[in-house]
Amino acid sequence: MAAPLLFLAPALVVVFAVLIFPILFSLFVSGFNWPLSAGMGERSFVGFGNYVELVHDPEFWNSLRLQLGFIFIAIPVELVLGYGAALLLNREFFGARVVRTLLLLPVFFLPIISGMTWRFMLQPRYGPLNTLLIKLGVPEVTWLSNPTYAYAAVIIQDVWRMWPFMFMLLYAGLTNIPNELIEAAHIDGAGFWRRQRSLIVPLLMPTILTALLLRIIDALRIFSEVYVMTEGGPGSATLLFSLFTNRVAFGYAKVGMASAMAIFLLILSIVFAATLVRRNMSLDVLEEKAGGR
Amino acid sequence: MKRTALAILLSVLALGFVAAQTINVLLWDDPYPKALQQMVPEFEKATGIKVNIEMLQPPQVYTKTSVAVGKDSSDYDLVAMDEGNVPIFSSLMTPYSTWPAGKKFPKTDPKTVTPAMLDVGMWNGQLIGLPINGNLYVWMTRKDLIENPQYRKDFKAKYNYDLGVPKTFQQMLDMGTFFNDRGIAAGFGPFNGGPAGVLGEAIFMWESYGTTFITFANGTYKVTLDKDKAVQGMELYKKLMTISPKGAETMAHVERQAAFAADPKGVFSMFIWPAQIAAYEDPDKSLVSGKIVYSAPPTGPAKRVAVRGTWALGIPLASKQKQAAAEFVYWWASKDIASRLVEANTVPARTDALTDPKFAKSKPWLAAIADSMKYATARPRLKEIAQIQDVVKKYWIMGITGQMPCPDAVDAIMNETNAILAKAGY
User: Fold this and answer.
1) Residue B2: in which H helix or E strand, if any?
2) What are B23's strand-pairing partners?
3) How far is CA B157 from CA B112, B160, B178, in A?
């Protein structure tokens, strides 16, 4: 009885140390008024005080709204682009490998470099985008100074950088669909859209859901690229949840409150993951879907 | 025999390595500490103290100090504190009066520090850290523009007074509008970057209009902004925004420098932190090197104001190398090093270095800095300043860009700041 536990112990210790303990510690800290610096006063237990304060803070809800908006706009666009490109490039032609490889380049950009690059590209007067507009006779636009444009710019930057990630996964999924199935559908008279709707998308669903799950988790943590592009501004127009958490922790020096936000983010991630995994990726559901076809 | 000799030699070397004193120093990243860093090997050679300098952007200096300096332990033996953060770290720092005497360099007399800067290191009546740089608003005006005979003639014809360095806000607006409307140069270079900088601009306008944002009296902080005056200040800034370069709504230091010194049109007039003068006067980086007149900021309707942004050096109570850290500060703050820092186009806090006649011609900004120091004004210093400056930035930008009427923006600033102060127990 003890032997299996003994063998499992090292792994359990590692899992506890790197996964469970930080979460428990965050949970513990979230119950305190915990200043970042010892110079700002003593720590004091506040129970659920930080959580109560958070839900009464309009900036918290604003940042959550922006974060969810970001996820629900950027990721579907990335999915559509990635899917389209995967369909287009799921064939052999001269230079196909090179094209497929080049398409992946943005994914390898460090987020902070991507943010900086976009910030300079969107710069009034000096940015290439405005230079182009001016040459076309269109008035230059101060992209990052306008709340709506700035939010759109943050989303566009993410789409540019991450749609190849979707492409990569979906292309890999597409190559695993047997050609015979597609040819059979073709012979049966299924047109392009019918083939997508009834054959390719259902077969690709586990890959799509995996890609969505990975991207959602990643998008919930987006930080550095937005930080260097806008620092959350103008005003609070791009103050996504992660940026607000950082501001609360290191700007306002409220570590307890920031930990409460981190716990909230964790719960949000679990809800997303559980919804996607339980409803769509369980074996029962997949078998049911396959049987239904 | 050889092996024994080698072992002894290695032991001696190892002992020497362990015995050498090392201090860890946390500084902000700008040309001033960078210029100092070039000279540090001389200090190391003179004292045998090794200096590990870590330079970070100002917000990161605050964060790093917060997590690395505690009551019982400290990763650093010397830290730079931005003046707004002195109250936060004051309880963790060794009061200057108890710093040990120098063994190699004499303890710096605080009287050598320019009085306007010395206040920066003070908290609760004690000198917590030694102010080390002379950073406050200095005004830059394009000499080539104000000396152009045609522009002078046209300006006089339109405004009925001489073109020159703007002495008042009205002149700043008139001259800026003149150059902007003719497409010669942008009229003004605002600062709308980080919250601390935006707060500086708001304080500059409000104080110039005769109203103080937050006052500390009877042991508590209160918002003491006169709404009418605050709105007037914001309205003027809003007018200045209309003669500013495109993208002024988010202009931080990088964009300001690009607009003023790298754009062929450039900017007529704006403030600068003296720490950045070196970049504007570098002919390799700047199109306007040698073409700038430096002065104190223009006078507002109530008074002339120069917002201060100085750093003070503090030795953590928990440092185990107080003697070595103090020695380093005494060396840094000495007349010799201060003069060499002036030569490197940076601005130390020592009065005798700033007013040294030998720099009068080659460093024309020094006279302007000395003049500005007469009007030095601090930003509010309290622990909740980060939250407050976020509020100010949010509504200030909304007000000056027309997203919100200025009176509403000022109301929002006052109401939300009051709420922060009330919550903090003031």
Assistant:
1) helix B2-19
2) B51
3) 48, 6, 11
CA distances from B120 to B123, B251, B313 (A): 8, 27, 10
The residues pairing with B271 across neighbouring beta strands, listed in sequence order, are B139
Interface size between A and B, measured as CB pairs under 8 A: 85
Whether chain B has a CB inside 8 Å of the CB on A196: the answer is no
Domain with A259 in it: what CATH number?
1.10.3720.10
Tell me the average pLDDT of chain B.
92
CATH superfamily label, B18-134+309-373: Periplasmic binding protein-like II (3.40.190.10)
pTM assigned to the model: 0.82
| Contacts of residue B271, Cβ cutoff 8 Å, sequence gap at least 6 | B137, B138, B139, B140, B189, B191, B204, B297
Contacts with A145 (C-beta within 8 Å, 6 or more apart), sequence order: A124, A234, B247, B248, B249, B250, B401
Q: Where are the beta strands (DSSP E) in B18-98?
A: 21-28, 49-56, 78-82
pLDDT of residue B18 exceeding 70: no
**pLDDT tens figures, B356-406:** 899 988 888 999 998 999 999 999 988 888 889 989 999 999 999 998 999
Over residues B87-103, the pLDDT tens digits come to 889 999 999 999 999 99
Q: What single letter denotes the amino acid at residue B174?
A: D
Fold of B138-308+378-423: D-Maltodextrin-Binding Protein; domain 2 (3.40.190)
Please name the helix (run of DSSP H) or strand (run of DSSP E) that holds residue B168, with its range, or none. none
Contacts of A234 in chain B (CB under 8 A): 249-250, 397, 401
| 8 Å CB contact between B117 and B108 | no
Pairing of strands A44-45, B292-295: unpaired
Provide the shortest C-alpha distance from residue B304 to chain A (in Å): 29
Closest CA to B280 of B266, B298, B260: B260
pLDDT per residue as tens digits for the range B201-221: 999 999 999 999 999 888 899
- Using a CB–CB cutoff of 8 Å, tell me whether A84 touches chain B: no
Alpha carbons B328 and B49: distance in angstroms, whole number: 8
Give the chain A residue nearest B419 (alpha carbons). A57
User: CA–CA separation, B319 vs B324, rounded Å?
Assistant: 10
What distances in angstroms separate CA A192 from CA A198, B43, B80, one per listed residue?
Answer: 10, 76, 66
